[in-house]
Amino acid sequence: xTGAPIPNKIVGNILLYKNAGTVLDxxxxxxxxxxxxxxxxxxxxxxxxxxxxxxxxxxxALDLGIAANIEKANIEDYxxxxxxxxxxxxxxxHFIKNPKKVIDNMKEHTKTSGLNVISVFTKxxxxxxxxYLFEKNELRNYYKDWEILVYNEYLSDLEQHDNxxxxxxxxxxxxxxxx
Length: 179
Fold this sequence. Notes:
23% helix, 7-stranded mixed sheet
C-alpha cells in the first residue's frame, strides 16, 4: 500500500470490519478514500461529477498502479445497479438537497453484513452555506434498523484547504452494518 493516499479517518476504520470485497464511493472527489481501499485489496467503483476531480483521480490511480473504476454522475440522481459490500460517502451529502434519497439508495444496494460509511456536516457549523446540514443524531436515526458499529458527532481538527483560512467543521460520522 506504499504511496496510497491517507483516507478520511472513518474510512480507514473500514479495515477493522472488512478486508476485501466490493466498494462504491459516492462523491469520490480526487479519490483518496477509493485509492486507499483499492490499495488495501477492495474492488472499487467511484462516482463523481467533477471533471477535474475525475482526471486527478485517474492520474493518481495510474501513477500508483491501482485499479479502480470511476463514473461521471451526480450522486443525487445516480442509480446504483449492483449490491456492494461497502458503500462510502464522505464529506459530500451536505452539498446536496436531498441526502435521504441517496442514503436510501445506499442502504438498498448494500449486501447483508455490508457497511455504509458516511461523514456529513451538521447544523452546528458556523458556516451554514451548505445545501443540507444534518440535525443532531439525524444520521444515526437513518440507520436505526442496522447495527451501528461507529457513530460520532464532533468538532473537527483545525484544517485549511480550498483557499480558506484555518477552520473547523462540526461532523457526524457513521459506520453501520446491514443486518
